[in-house]
Task: inverse folding
């Protein structure tokens, strides 16, 4: 998943990657910082290095492989991993013996033994700190035996063990004897939720999820029925749909979850097996033997990040996470410097990505007036039309140093290529991807009037775009290009059979040449972008999204269905950190209303919608008079919010002494807790049950927040929280600890044996089975507070008009849960706030700013180039069977009932080719992958006599 | 590159090239700002590039 992002940053004209470097100092002010960097030596020139790997293959020195967490070795000349960006090797001088072999072997002359540390100075307007975390080092916790017993590994090591590119090539085995384990234990909260032994009082927020995942993947890898046990205090699968994944692991895959904190691990020396000694829920000490133990290590801020914060004079909290305010989650204590990801606080990948976009939004807004002043633009010459010309193909065969040339007879392949139909030029290169070869290709295109280019080298995944740009730079259409992968799919895998590899290279080149002759020039349609945005929903999410865009200089129309702005936050008082929500809301509304770029329409209802990215049209009825407005806009941000679940449970609505947490917040605000003698809170009301399998994420912290208010106002009030798992993730764990210290009593109950609430004139009698005492407890309470979950707003009307997809719980579905958490599947449409899923106000603000950032990537362009790789329908021969309509994963093909034809809008087609594949009459063709263009490759292959 | 005479710079520095740093860089670069993406390691990718598969889709992290 991360590979495409690596390639994208690596190739982006306006991202300058500076590796092996650290900040030395930052001077100046927001908008105009002078940053001094220390550039550590790499000893290999990344510009000259082609990543061929000959240096590492000949390096005689063995070093510990940091990428595989020290579980295997690498050379002193190394690359972190095969997909690394930049794809350039480096020398680890701690182990290098300076033998000179790599220098002798490097055909690109990239080795620099005399490389030295340098300093460089850059001017930037904003700075974003995203230096992340490292896994907690458990060797300090001697009772776990890490470092002493080889079969006790960290979760980071276990990730590498499971990985196909890991030390054991993805085979599940334990380090001691490489035997496949039959029984593995995971120990949760190692380096987290532990103020006693390690000082990290916070919850790392990710370990429960990765432990569940690792157990499931390990079961998949195992050849036997692997027994997986996760020892935990609480399972905190609080994210969107995460609970369903946990239930799948527990109920379908048979992963066992045991509530216990482990006392010690000891090794059985004869077998290397491990005895795990733990206290069960009734306090009895038990033992169980495992073949392997995985320590679920928490996220820890490295010392280097703490020093960085100190250097930059930025405040950090007691755990060294950057100190931020609940209402400005990416703003550090120093103006112009922002933060995101785990340096901001423990969080998972989607939240890190969301926050990164939020930081981009705020950092960019500071510099809106300077937008485009530092960026580079490629000048592309006018394109020549070669449609009528006979193909004149040029073939460039790559030696890739000796990666290909050492196995395949490249001169023979080149001579063979020269004789193929339509080939007018063929030559070989040492490295076809190098800059000087690009210049040579351009020269040859002009000299030989080439109108098709074939490169026989490596993977189009990494290199196709670059070669296409070379074609474009001399006026040739980029789609007149084809690659043959004679390295990854040939020389690397047939290195022991050079003659056959040479033959296969010829076959691959013949196929590529045949296809290239059939290629057509394709033109990417250019559409203009309407620079106005439409934001639907005027709560905290919608208002922050609107402001994010307004401050970047874009016009925004903000729709709110109610008569005033604010959404659900109007009913909330404080964040758990003590932030005053009403004060914040008033200031936010004032800022929105005074922003010249934002037009607010209250009492607004969407009644019609059409268009595609860059050019949408929405009709809205506004106000009591239902005045119709037609809005033209380039993007949409959906922020329709959510509300508190209205309980059907525990006599809610029948007895005034049963209230929800939000209602209880009102009571505490109005009357305080002085008259309360006993309060019982019941968790997971309307969540984690048959009707709603998901966790509502916010209720545990809500209970802890209100319990703390009660205890601080009236220490004599008895407060009981009846729970299933306490999910105060991240830094909120400190408040849970504080609540226990102040005497709040937490009692766990089983889902199949929930508490009973019986109203009586004396009070509410709550009965719950205590899992430690194994007997029923009876509590007489003045008030029963239900931690009611979060329910999506009813958006069925909006969805039927705008065709947005929702999950069964009514929350909108994002384009990708991991990598595109604020994009919706339709391009130009973004999502934020509780309309996406339950979340806290701080998280809502981040996500809203993120949605604004994602939208800005569209709105900052005057026009968008659409992909030329789209499906085309031959309407004359189409029999209108509607197979394409039913098969398209993006619902693009539609049957136009007026014209009686199938239409595929190229502005929204993703070019996946599913429709072309399923069409029974072959009347749909995918540009660049037409049937003939594929079949001719097979013909060419068979023509070789296979 | 950068500012002169107190004018604002159109460049941003992102420190740390893990998934968060890369996303911030791409958003900014795609919104017409120039980005310097700094990392202390020889490659971008950060912690996510060291994972096997990811929760909850079980997609390959790489």
Result:
């Amino acid at each position: 998943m991360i590979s495409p992002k690596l390639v994208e940053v690596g190739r982006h004209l306006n991202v300058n990657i500076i590796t092996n470097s650290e900040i030395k100092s930052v001077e100046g002010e927001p908008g105009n910082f002078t940053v001094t960097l220390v550039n550590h030596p790499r000893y290999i020139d990344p510009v000259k290095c082609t990543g061929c790997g000959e240096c590492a293959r000949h390096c005689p020195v063995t070093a510990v492989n940091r990428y595989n967490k020290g579980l295997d070795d690498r050379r002193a000349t190394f690359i972190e991993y095969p997909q690394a960006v930049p794809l350039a090797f480096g020398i680890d001088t701690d182990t290098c013996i300076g033998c000179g072999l790599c220098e002798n072997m490097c055909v690109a002359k990239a080795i620099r033994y005399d490389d030295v540390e340098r300093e460089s100075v850059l001017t930037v307007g904003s700075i974003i700190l995203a230096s992340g975390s490292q896994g907690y080092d458990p060797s300090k916790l001697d009772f776990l035996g890490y470092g002493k017993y080889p079969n006790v590994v960290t979760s980071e090591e276990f990730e590498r063990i499971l990985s196909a590119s890991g030390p054991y090539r993805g085979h599940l085995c334990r380090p001691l004897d490489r035997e496949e384990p039959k029984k593995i234990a995971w120990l949760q909260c190692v380096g987290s939720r532990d103020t006693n032994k390690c000082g990290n009082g916070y919850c790392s927020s990710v370990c429960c999820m990765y432990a569940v995942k690792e157990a499931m993947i390990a079961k998949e890898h195992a050849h036997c029925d692997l027994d997986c046990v996760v020892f935990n205090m609480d399972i905190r699968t609080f994210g969107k749909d995460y609970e369903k994944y946990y239930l799948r692991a527990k109920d379908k895959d048979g992963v066992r979850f045991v509530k216990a904190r482990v006392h010690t691990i000891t090794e059985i020396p004869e077998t290397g097996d491990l005895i795990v000694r733990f206290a069960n829920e009734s306090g009895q000490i038990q033992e169980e033997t495992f073949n392997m133990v995985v320590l679920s290590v928490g996220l820890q801020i490295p010392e280097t990040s703490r020093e960085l914060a100190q250097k930059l004079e930025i405040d950090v909290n007691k755990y060294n996470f950057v100190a931020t305010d609940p209402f400005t989650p990416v703003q550090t204590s120093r103006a112009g410097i922002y933060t995101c990801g785990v340096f901001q606080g423990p969080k998972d990948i989607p939240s890190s990505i969301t926050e990164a976009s939020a930081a981009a939004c705020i950092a960019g807004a500071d510099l809106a007036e300077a937008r485009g002043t530092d960026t580079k633009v490629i000048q592309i010459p006018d394109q020549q039309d070669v449609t009528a010309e006979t193909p004149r193909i040029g073939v460039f065969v790559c030696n890739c140093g000796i990666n290909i040339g050492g196995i395949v007879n490249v001169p023979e392949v080149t001579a063979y290529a020269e004789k193929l139909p339509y080939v007018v030029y063929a030559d070989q290169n040492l490295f076809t991807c190098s800059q000087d070869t690009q210049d040579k290709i351009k020269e040859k295109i002009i000299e030989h009037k080439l109108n098709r280019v074939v490169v026989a080298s490596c993977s189009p995944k990494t290199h196709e775009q670059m070669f296409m740009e070379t074609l474009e730079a001399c006026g040739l259409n980029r789609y007149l290009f084809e690659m043959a992968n004679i390295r990854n799919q040939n020389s690397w895998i047939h290195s022991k059979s050079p003659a056959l590899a040479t033959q296969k290279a010829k076959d691959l080149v013949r196929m590529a040449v045949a296809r290239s002759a059939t290629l057509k020039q394709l033109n990417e349609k250019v559409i203009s972008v309407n620079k106005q945005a439409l934001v639907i929903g005027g709560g905290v999410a919608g208002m922050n999204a609107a402001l994010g865009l307004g401050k970047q200089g874009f016009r925004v129309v903000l729709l709110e269905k109610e008569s005033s702005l604010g959404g659900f936050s109007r009913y909330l008082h404080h964040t758990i950190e003590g932030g005053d929500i009403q004060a914040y809301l008033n200031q936010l509304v004032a800022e929105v209303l005074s922003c010249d770029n934002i037009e607010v329409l209250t009492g607004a209802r969407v009644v019609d919608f059409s268009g595609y990215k860059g050019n949408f049209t929405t009709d809205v009825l506004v106000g009591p008079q239902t005045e119709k407005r037609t809005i033209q806009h380039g993007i949409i941000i959906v922020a329709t919010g959510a509300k508190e679940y209205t309980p059907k449970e525990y006599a809610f609505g029948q007895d005034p002494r049963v209230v929800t947490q939000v209602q209880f917040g009102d009571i505490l605000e109005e009357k305080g807790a002085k008259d309360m003698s006993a309060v019982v809170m019941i968790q997971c009301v309307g969540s984690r049950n048959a009707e709603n399998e998901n966790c509502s994420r916010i209720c545990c912290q809500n209970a802890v927040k209100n319990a703390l208010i009660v205890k601080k106002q009236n220490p004599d009030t008895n407060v009981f929280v009846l729970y299933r798992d306490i999910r105060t993730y991240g830094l909120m764990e400190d408040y849970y600890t504080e609540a226990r210290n102040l005497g709040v009593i937490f009692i766990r109950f089983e889902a199949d044996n929930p508490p009973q609430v019986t109203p009586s004139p004396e009070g509410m009698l709550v009965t719950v089975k205590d899992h430690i005492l194994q007997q029923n407890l009876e509590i007489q309470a003045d008030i029963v507070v239900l931690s009611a979950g979060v329910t999506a707003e009813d958006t069925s009307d909006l969805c039927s008009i705008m065709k947005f997809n929702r999950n069964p719980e009514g929350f909108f579905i994002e384009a990708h849960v991991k990598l595109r958490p604020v994009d919706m599947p339709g391009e130009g449409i973004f999502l934020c706030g509780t309309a996406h899923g339950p979340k806290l106000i701080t998280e809502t603000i981040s996500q809203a700013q993120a949605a604004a950032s994602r939208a800005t990537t569209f709105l900052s362009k005057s026009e968008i180039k659409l992909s030329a790789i789209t499906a085309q329908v031959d309407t004359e021969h189409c029999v209108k069977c509607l197979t394409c309509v039913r098969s398209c994963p993006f619902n693009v093909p539609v049957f136009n009932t007026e014209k009686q034809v199938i239409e595929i809008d190229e502005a929204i087609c993703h070019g996946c080719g599913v429709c072309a594949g399923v069409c029974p009459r072959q009347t749909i063709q995918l540009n660049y992958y037409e049937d003939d263009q594929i079949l001719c490759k097979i013909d060419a292959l068979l023509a070789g006599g296979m | 590159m950068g500012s002169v005479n107190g004018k604002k710079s159109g460049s941003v520095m992102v420190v740390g090239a893990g998934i968060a740093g890369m996303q911030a860089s791409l958003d900014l670069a795609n919104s017409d700002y120039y980005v310097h993406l700094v990392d202390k390691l020889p490659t971008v990718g950060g912690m996510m590039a060291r994972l096997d598969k990811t929760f909850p889709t079980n997609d390959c992290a790489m």
Notes: Chain B touches chain A through 60 residues (CB under 8 Å). Chain B has a mean pLDDT of 90. Chain B has one helix and four strands.
